[in-house]
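Dear colleagues,

As part of the handover before I leave the project, I'm documenting each prediction I ran so the next person doesn't have to rerun anything. This entry is a single chain, and its sequence is reproduced below.
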Amino acid sequence: MFTTPPRAARVPTVSCLLQCVVVFVAIALGLAACGSDKTGAASPRPSSVHSGQSAFPVTVAHKYGSTRITAQPTRVVAVGLTDSEPLLALGVKPVGVVDWFGERPYGNWPWSGKLWAGTAPEIVGERGELNFEKIAAIRPDLILALYSDITQEQYDTLSKIAPTVAQSKEHDDFATPWKEMTRTAGQAVGLESRANDLIAAIDKKFADVRQANPDFAGKTTAIVDPYEPGQYAVFSPNDPRSVFMSEIGFKVPDQIGQLAGPEFAAEISSERLDIVDVDRLLFVTDASDAEARVKADPVYNRLKVAREGRALFVPYADPPVGTALTFNSVLSIPYAIDQLVPLLKTPGSAG
């Protein structure tokens, strides 16, 4: 499973629905009550969200302009792949989400399950495919698309449903850092101060790891998904998995970044495994036979990192260490730290 969407690849949206969705929205919701990049939503109903009314109105800048939010949202739809994470951390349960990993039932990750408190959101899409009719039907008063690659056309359609905050204009699609996502989500729901507190707490956790593990400092690492026999995705320095490793002191070699170019990963065959002959090699896997398959690769076995037992295999599930790294969110980072850091101190596998 090559789980990070490449920048160049987009899952086609349901473009044939766009025109009818606009009509549906106009009739069902009333365009006067809907937001766009210039206007906010109507006053929301009372919410259990911590009080943040004094923060409004607020204007949030993004890739397609700016969005004005006039009152604290109470029905938030998160169409970015991991946008529900900062919202949950802030005490806001989205009423609609997209499902990245095909997770059923939704919301069972160890770092977020309790925060859903048994309240299942509506699934309004999977990865890059959005169901605009479903989104409109649950009557959101805010839509977040922070960790996404929504197009201008999709943004325009979503904005006819509710005020929509798209991905950052400062970063590539699917590349908004966790800190900025958390801060933007906090700003949009009137809880920016709380968001800053959450960020500070995670920064301290990373600092504590670096202080307790000085041997990590400057050591080279590569994070690899052996997604098919003889085929490997080597994640770039900007991928969330690599960013996590950098935060605890490791360094991804420049050669990997150069090979990946503008993509999140360089896809290589066994013959190029020399680029992952690093101080600490981390494989993230979703197949039960992945570790055995890699260890049977004769090219891998010639690497010094393999001969000296400095490779670590962690699964995307059971336990979901790889997923926590992939999300690299304000919620999943503490779980990833607790699960992965002890394993990095000694060679072996998680599971």
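Residues 6-50 have pLDDT under 50 and may be disordered. The two ends are 17 Å apart (CA to CA).

All the best with the project,
I.
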